[in-house]
Amino acid sequence: VNSLLSAGLILLLGFVGARLLKLVRLPSVTAFLIVGILIGPQLLNLVTPEIFASSEFFSNLVLGLIAFSLGENFRLDKLRLGMRQVMWISLSAALFAWVLVSAGLIIYFISIKMPIYPAIVLGAAASATAPAATVLVIREYRASGVLTELLLKVVAIDDAWCLIFAAMAIAVGNAMRADVFQLSIVFAGLGEIFGALLLGGVLGYLSSKLSRYVRTSEELLVYTLGLLFLDVGLSIAMGVSVLLSAMMMGLILVNIARENYKFFEVLRSVDTPLYLAFFILSGAHLDFGVLYRMGLAGILYVVLRTIGKVYGAKFGARISNAPKTAEDWLGLSLAPQAGVALGVGLVAKVTFPDYGNYIFTIIAATSVVFELVGPLLTKYSLIKAGEISSSE
Amino acid sequence: LNLIPLKIMNASDFASNFVLGIIAFTLGANFSVQAIKAAGKPVIWISVLEAAFAWIIVTLVMVLYHSLNGLPIHPAFVLGAAAAATAPAATVMVIREYRASGPVTDMLLRVVAIDDAWCLIFSALAITTANALRLGVFSSVVLFEAFYEVFAALLLGAGLGAVFYLLSRFIMTVEEVLVIVIGSILLAVGLATKLGLSPLLTNMTFGLVVANIVRNNDLFFEKLRNVDMIFFLGFFVLVGANLEIHLLPKVGVMGVLYIIFRVVGKFIGVRLGSMVSKAGENVSKYLAWGLVPQAGVALGVALSAKALYPQYGEVIFTTITATTVIYELVGPLCTKYGLRKAGEI
Questions:
Q1: Which of A240, A348, B212, B224 is most buried, by the most CB atoms less than 10 A from its CB?
Q2: Can you tell me the distance from the alpha carbon of A388 to that of A354, in angstroms, rounded to the nearest whole number?
Q3: 3-class SS at B73?
Q4: How does pLDDT run across B131-167, given as a tens digit for each residue?
Q5: Taking Cα atoms as reference points, which of A281, A287, A311 lies closest to residue A362?
Q6: A90 φ, ψ to 5°?
Q7: For residue A272, which residues of chain B lie inside 8 Å, CB to CB?
Q8: Other Cβ atoms within 10 Å of A199 Cβ, number
Q9: Contacts of A167 (CB under 8 A, 6+ apart)
Q10: B178, B180, B191 ranked by CB distance to A5: nearest
Q11: ipTM surpasses 0.85
Q12: Do B111 and B52 meet the contact criterion of CB atoms below 8 Å apart?
């Protein structure tokens, strides 16, 4: 199988798979992942090494694309009131997940006489969500309503909380292992966030100013994609968060000038193949071997993270007087977990020679679970909240 | 500046094949029954003949040049085939800029729209022939092989068209259109490469079948037009980055011969074509000026030749890239000159 053939099969089988699984009412995201698993190295092996090698490039681009489009939801003139709710809900959903998962795992680790710092890092990873899967479910079923609006904003910013928590957790973990508390790690985490916001802001501003040289809609597409590549590339080069800088770029663009909605529109017309390929490649990457190794800790993680999200969101919604549907259903719709959590796992793997691998395995395994089940839960919550029409 | 990492350079093979696939697929649509009817006899005659003459004359000159210099002659065939192509985009730009209108302008637009398609057919034949020659023996077996390859490519394209027809009935949203189109083009190029057939011919047949049997096929081509600029832009920048500047002096004489005789071929072809189809005098005299520009498709032919036989491909590729640059500079001026002479500007 050559790479061109492989790429063609990815797109076409993705389409066919989504169509078939729609018959049993599975969201396309899940269908793409399943197709990915089928054609991945463990089964049919239709993905060539070259395409596999390109998937890092690809997933960075798609995450940037998703985050950028999420930025569009933050129109400040429409936002003022809602922002308080978004902050409360996202913070408390992330925090509850962290605290619950950490607490549960600390008890477990003490009982099996293991050091407890991995529990703290794992908890921080549990606070992350998966914007891409969430957005795709919303889009596929054309969900709309207060819950959907809040959800789009919460998934856009809660990864910032995750980054802060993860930086703190890793600093604490280091302190417990080696008795040195490196404040610099916490600052590095903050730097990652503010650097990203700054980069995205500057690029957003410049691109809005330069956009008057863009004439045709074809040029606009080239321009927008080019910007996105630039932003993602610079973020990686500077070591700041790709998600946050792309979101910030979108946020600045949408607030700086009315007509900037065209940037988002032009991307929407072409992004479907990118998402499809992204999820199929993610599916091909899923390693089921780790599921056997996740053990009781993994199960605890899955259960406690879900409970943490549900009650955290409930608490945040109640405090900030958010609508009742958000209180009831927002937490569950935050279930998907993917790349951001894996990123925490990767850092842990590098930082902690003793338990780093263990941490990574748990995160990878639970991500398999949440990636497959998460979109279903998001869909379910949106249906229950009455924001997806019942015919779907 | 070295801003292009090796990874992207490596991907350029993938990208160029894909872009060629898109070009060929779009060109195939020109042969829908509807389009041919609309074009009319003179357009068909003129386009075939100007393309064929550019091909034949350049090939002959190149064969002569190569054999005089004691070089193997098969690159000549490919160079000739590339000479058949023109540059629709450049032509349209000139026409728009000067608001030209009249019979010659009309004819010119229709001719440039389809002669690239002829170019692809010729180059598929030329590349097969060149391959056969390279293998040394020119027996009936080789000839049979060549025919088989062309035929198989047609068959594959048609088969994919049929599959596409089936798939297209399940499309529900506009977004999915793009997935299917891009996916099938990739599949077509991939399968053709795997089976050792011409990806150009395969995709052209594929496009032709789609244009003729799939309902609402305009939508597919239109969606593709919306996005193809990104691919083309990336593609041409990579072509530039791939260019081996040190080869330029080596292709000097060849390049000059190519430039001159391609234009000669175009002029003879247009004259003959107008005679056969009884097109007007102005067309016969001035149309050829509008066919001087050369762009993407010629480069595409060069690239696929390069992929097929790296040894000589390098020289072919450099010649065509260099001449394309020159034609791109001079060509629009020629088009303008021709249209002005014809009194349509």
A1: A348
A2: 47
A3: coil
A4: 777 666 555 666 676 677 778 888 888 888 888 888 8
A5: A287
A6: -65, -40
A7: 175-176, 178-179
A8: 23
A9: A185, A186, A188, A189, A190, A192
A10: B191
A11: no
A12: no
